[in-house]
Structure formats: C-alpha cells, structure tokens
Amino acid sequence: YECEPDARYECIIKFLILGRQALDIFSNKKNQKKEIGSKRVFILSSSNNTQTSNSQVSISIVLADRFGHITDSEYRSFVDYVEGVKAKLGSKAVLKEPIPVYSDILKSSAETYRKVKSLDSILEFSLKSSDIIDLNLFRNYMEKLGYMETLPSKFVLFDTTETKLSVAEFSNSKNIFKFLFNIATSNNPIQNLKDMFDGLRWIADHFQCQILDKNHNEVGEQSFENILNQVEIRVSKLKIEGLFPGSRLSREVFKLR
Asked: Given a cut of 50, is residue 53 above it in pLDDT?
C-alpha cells in the first residue's frame, strides 16, 4: 500500500516507456516536477518483465485532500506536466489510456472529498493558562519536545520523513495554546499520541495549565484512555478505506498545513 497508486483517491495516468535510455531520462530528478499547487505529483515505474527493458510508468495526483477537491487550475497543470513528459520522450512514451477531461475528474474528486471528510484524522488539544503564556519560556519547552518554530509562535513536530505530525500555535487568546495531532500521517499513531500527550502534561505542570479537548473539556487520565480507544477505531476505519496511517497516500491526503 505504500507505493501503489489508488484510483479511489488519485488521478492516475499510465503509459509505457520503451527502452532503458528513455526511462533514465524520465527518472532524472531534474526532469520531475514534484509539486502542483499544494499537491504532490507521484511517479511510479516498474519493469514490464524480465525479457525487455520497457517499463510501466504511472504519474498520479490526489483527487482531493482534507482541504478540498483538485481544482481546474491544478488539474490543467498536472495534464501539462504529463503532456510535457510525452513530448520529451516522443515515440518512446506510449499512453495506455486517454487523459481524462476535468469534468470527469471533478465528479470523482467530489466523491473522494466526501469520503476524506468523513474519515476525521485530526485531534485537537489546548493548553489553557489563567495568565498570558510567556512565549520565550514556552519556546524552550517546545524545542525540548522536538517542535520547530517554523513561523513566529507557530511550532511544527516533524517525523523522520519530514511529514508534519503536529502543529501548535496560539488560539485567539494569548493564554490558550492549541495543538493539532494528525492520526493519518503517523506510522504509529497510538504511541506518537501518547508521547505527545506526555509532553503536554509536562508543559501543563510547569505553566499551571489545563489540558482541554476540542470541546473545551478537561482531559484527565481516564478521558485520555477514551481518546486512545477512539483513535484505534479511527485507525481501523482508515485501513478499511485503504488509507493506512503513515503511508504515502495518507500523508498527502491528510497533511497539515
């Protein structure tokens, strides 16, 4: 599930590349466009069989992510990229099927977006203090937990693949600091959530804060166990739908910004 494209969530263009030299040209990193708007382009190639140097290649982009379906502009840029690959390789690149038109893609992407929205993967916690939180002191604690300050007073926790697992920043009030944790982008969501929550408790003890859930209810030991149980249910639902936590596709569909 890590590499194979999935037609339920991606627009996939497949074609055959004839010859090793053409594949080498295509595979050269400087010839590959990785981003279109906020979405990544994914490329997968595999040898057609052991008797030939021809290769099956797929180029894909997600139909939708947690922010919305693919736009007309994004899709046109994606098609332009695919057409550019064809033009560069000439007769050495043979499309397996015609490139779909946007009206067909829009229908599929709307359905994909509805499914993605139903698979809630974001947990929200807040640290609430009775006083204004001292950002300079708070910054030191966040760094010790592994968070990086990517923008003033905005912190991000990355995993080893540089995927955002958690984002933290002030809420509307300077005495409330909000944390988002992404279940779907983590290879081990239960353990990563436990580690993150231990860090929250450590900070809360020092700053005399309450830990609240998204409904502003205080989170204690028992309520956190209930949250872990809910996470296990969500993880199971993601897997059933082919969106394995930490996989290439889940990291793209559910990514934090």
From this structure: yes
Cα–Cα distance between 169 and 150 in angstroms, integer?
Answer: 11
Beta 93-95 vs 68-69: how paired, if at all? unpaired
The CB-based long-range contact list for 243-248 (8 Å cut-off, 24+ gap) reads: 243/9, 243/119, 243/184, 244/1, 244/2, 245/183, 245/184, 245/185, 245/186, 245/187, 245/188, 245/189, 246/184, 246/185, 246/186, 246/187, 246/188, 246/189, 247/1, 247/2, 248/2, 248/3, 248/42
The residue written with tokens 């560069």 in the block is 88
pTM over 0.90: no
Q: What is the DSSP letter of 254?
A: T
Q: Provide CB contacts within 8 A for 249, sequence distance 6+.
A: 1, 6, 9, 10, 62, 242, 243
The per-residue pLDDT for range 19-30, each reduced to its tens digit, is 888 887 777 766
Mean pLDDT of 220-233: 94
Give residues with Cβ within 8 angstroms of 244, minimum separation 6.
1, 2, 238, 250
Buried b (16+ CB within 10 A) or exposed e, 220-237: eeeebeebeeebeebbee
Q: For residue 65, how many other CB atoms are within 10 A of its CB?
A: 19
CA 244 to CA 197: how far, in whole Å? Answer: 22
Report how far residue 129's alpha carbon sits from residue 170's, in angstroms, rounded to the nearest whole number: 12
Q: Please write the tens of the pLDDT for every residue from 178-194.
A: 999 999 999 999 999 99
Please give the DSSP secondary-structure letter assigned to residue 250.
H
